[in-house]
Design brief:
Blueprint: E1 2-6, E2 9-13, E3 16-18, H1 23-35, E4 40-44, E5 48-51, H2 53-66, E6 72-73
Parallel strand pairs: 2-4, 3-5, 4-6
Antiparallel strand pairs: 1-2
């Protein structure tokens, strides 16, 4: 996972396979981003080659955090 800030937007870029091994790192990155509630969040899935159910669970976690503020964007292929 790579995380950086562009203006007022936190961008998390996930790469490769998001499976049981990688999902905890994605969840941690999402938790850290959620702590910065004043920023919008983009989770860039473009470089992801496989998204397992554990990865989907991480994204559901992110959606649950962002739904009230509507500040989550999940671009991908």
């Amino acid at each position: 996972m790579n995380s950086h800030v562009v203006e007022a937007v936190t961008v998390i870029t996930a790469t490769g396979d998001i499976d049981m091994g990688a999902a905890p790192r994605l969840i941690e990155a999402l938790r850290e981003a959620a702590e910065n509630a004043d920023r919008a969040l983009v989770v860039d899935l473009t470089p992801v080659t496989f998204l397992a159910s554990a990865g989907m669970s991480a994204l559901v976690f992110a959606c649950g955090r962002a739904v009230s503020d509507s500040r989550l964007l999940l671009p991908g292929r």
